[in-house]
Every structure is written in structure tokens, then in C-alpha cells.
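sry for the spam today, last one i promise. C-alpha cells for design, 333 residues
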């Protein structure tokens, strides 16, 4: 058991969420009471959604949306372009800059639930490994457990790419050895949306530091029928370290058929409360394996809405994630 001096910012936020939920349930006499083992997830969002609020800084934007956590993009210079203030920019490149970020999150009562890297491994491997090494050190200092990575074929194809991906992921895991940091490969694009590729990669690397950033819509985007999604979610749930929560609403005759990759995505992408994906099922699947990460909103449909409505759409989505984060896995699977 941790002493009070060993509690991290993340522990405090999650414990406070659990206490608030338990108090509300007791006062209202209704709803799902958390079990002793239940640990509420942090409701978060991608940092690229924050400027939609029109707020003058990222801190007030997070509070306006109702999130307690955020996924922070970090570029190869360790600059965080999605964090900003009226006169401030944020970086992790030096000890003083990293401490400034750390102290500001502490002051605001917010947490970073994951870092996002936009990787180009088969174009500039040495640079990518140096970048990763620096970011893992920063993640340890900031108590960030998950780094979302791209394992994307840009120059290398076929079996050669699989062999390359295994080599790279083993190198990444060597960098993370001895730390609490894990990499979440996003199921993304034409390669890692293939469950068989993912399974082979996880089996070949065989490291507790390598898992999945589960993008709930991307398997669907790839063409998998709706009824098959939950089987894939269950299959990979033990390897999920981080999430991107988004959805699609396809016509009835397209939900449970194999579609071409990316079919009409821009037309049918939608907020998570309107889509085909049942997030109660998703939450139950994750709860069943004692998932310890976040529920992180990524909305790629928001541009369809008038600017005056966009913030309210995001707030409604985040409210759904906050509710799911407190629920027991009682949903019938």
C-alpha cells in the first residue's frame, strides 16, 4: 500500500472521482455502487480538441469541457503544440520546461493520461529512437503511463515491414525497460487495423511494455462488421493501455457487412452518443480485464457542426465517458 507521500497526481484524481461517485450514490440511493476493486477511469480528450472551446488557454479549455485528463501530442523537439496560454508555450525539452509543465498540471488539478507521437520509424529510425528515449524519461517524471505510437508502413511493405516492426518494437521496449511506461500502438491505417497483424506483432515482441491504444472506431472504419468489433475488443482488451473513443453511424444495410476500407467515413463519422458502437459494451469489456487507463475522446466529426455548437457536442460526449468511467461491468456481454 502506498503511503500518503507516495500518492501520485493520477492516484489523487482517480481516488477523488471514486469518492465523489460513492457519495452521490449513497445520497441518491440509486445507481451503481462501485465495488471495492473498482477504480474510476479518468475522462480525457485529445489536446487537438481544446481550441474548439475558444478559451484563452488549454487549462480553462479542459475545465470548460469537463475533462480531468488530456492526451498531449509531443513533437520530435519535445514541444507540446496542444498546450498553450495567452503568452505561454510548453515543452519537455529541458528540466526547467518539464518542471513548469508538471507544476502547472498539479496547480490545475489535471493530469496527462498519455503522450501522442506521430512516428515515421521506417523513414528515420535513429531519430525516432532518440526522441522516444527522451520522451520516456519525461513520461516517468510526469507519471504518464502510456505513449501512443504509430506503427505505419511508409517505405517498407509486406513481410519486410512485419520483420521491421518487430525489430523496432523490441528496441522501444528496451528503452522502456525498468520504467512504468508502456507503448500503445494505435489500430490505425491499413496495417495495424488488421487484428492478425497486431496479434502476430504482440506475440513476436512479447513485452509487457507493448500494447494497444484502442481506437474504438478504427476497426469499423477499416471495414470490420459491427458485430465483429466486440470480439476484437475482447481479444485485445488485456493489451489496452490507452484509448481513443470515437464512433461512426453507418446505414443499417452497411453495419454488419464487410465494407471497403474507409468507406464514406467523412459522411458517417459522428459523436460517440450517436454512433453504432455501444460504449457500455466497450466499458464492460475493459472493466472485465481491470483496465487501468483512461477514456479519451477523439472526435473526427466535430467539423460537421456549426462552431457555436461544437463545444456543447464535445461536452455531451465527455459526460458520457465520465458516466461510463464510474460504472460496474454489469452489462450483459
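last one done:
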Amino acid at each position: 500500500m502506498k503511503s500518503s507521500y507516495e500518492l501520485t497526481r493520477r492516484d489523487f484524481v482517480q481516488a477523488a472521482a471514486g469518492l465523489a461517485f460513492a457519495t452521490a450514490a449513497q445520497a441518491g440511493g440509486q445507481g451503481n455502487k462501485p465495488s471495492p476493486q473498482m477504480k474510476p477511469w479518468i475522462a480525457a480528450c485529445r489536446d487537438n480538441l481544446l481550441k474548439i472551446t475558444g478559451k484563452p488557454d488549454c487549462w480553462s479549455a479542459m475545465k470548460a469541457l469537463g475533462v480531468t485528463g488530456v492526451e498531449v501530442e509531443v513533437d520530435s523537439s519535445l514541444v507540446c503544440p496542444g498546450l498553450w496560454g495567452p503568452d505561454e508555450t510548453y515543452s519537455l525539452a529541458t528540466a526547467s520546461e518539464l518542471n513548469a509543465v508538471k507544476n502547472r498540471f498539479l496547480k490545475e488539478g489535471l493530469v496527462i493520461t498519455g503522450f501522442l507521437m506521430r512516428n515515421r520509424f521506417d523513414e528515420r529510425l535513429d531519430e525516432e529512437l532518440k526522441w522516444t528515449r527522451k520522451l520516456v524519461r519525461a513520461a516517468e517524471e510526469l507519471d504518464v503511463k502510456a505513449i501512443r505510437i504509430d506503427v505505419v508502413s511508409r517505405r517498407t511493405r509486406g513481410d519486410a515491414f512485419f520483420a521491421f516492426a518487430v525489430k523496432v518494437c523490441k528496441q522501444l521496449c528496451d528503452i522502456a525497460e525498468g520504467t512504468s511506461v508502456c507503448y500503445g500502438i494505435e489500430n490505425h491505417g491499413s496495417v495495424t487495423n488488421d487484428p492478425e497483424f497486431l496479434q502476430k506483432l504482440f506475440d513476436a515482441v512479447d513485452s509487457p511494455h507493448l500494447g494497444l491504444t484502442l481506437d474504438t472506431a478504427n476497426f469499423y472504419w477499416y471495414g470490420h462488421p459491427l458485430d465483429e468489433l466486440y470480439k476484437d475488443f475482447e481479444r485485445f482488451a488485456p493489451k489496452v493501455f490507452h484509448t481513443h473513443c470515437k464512433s461512426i453511424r453507418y446505414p443499417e444495410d452497411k453495419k454488419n457487412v464487410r465494407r471497403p476500407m474507409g468507406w464514406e467515413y467523412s459522411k458517417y463519422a459522428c459523436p460517440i452518443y450517436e454512433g453504432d458502437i455501444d460504449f457500455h459494451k466497450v466499458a464492460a469489456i475493459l472493466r472485465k480485464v481491470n483496465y487501468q487507463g483512461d477514456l479519451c475522446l477523439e472526435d473526427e466529426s466535430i467539423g460537421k457542426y456549426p462552431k457555436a455548437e461544437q463545444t456543447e457536442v464535445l461536452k455531451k460526449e465527455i459526460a458520457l465517458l465520465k458516466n461510463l468511467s464510474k460504472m460496474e461491468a454489469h452489462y450483459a456481454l
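DSSP finds twelve helices and twelve strands in the chain. ok im logging off now
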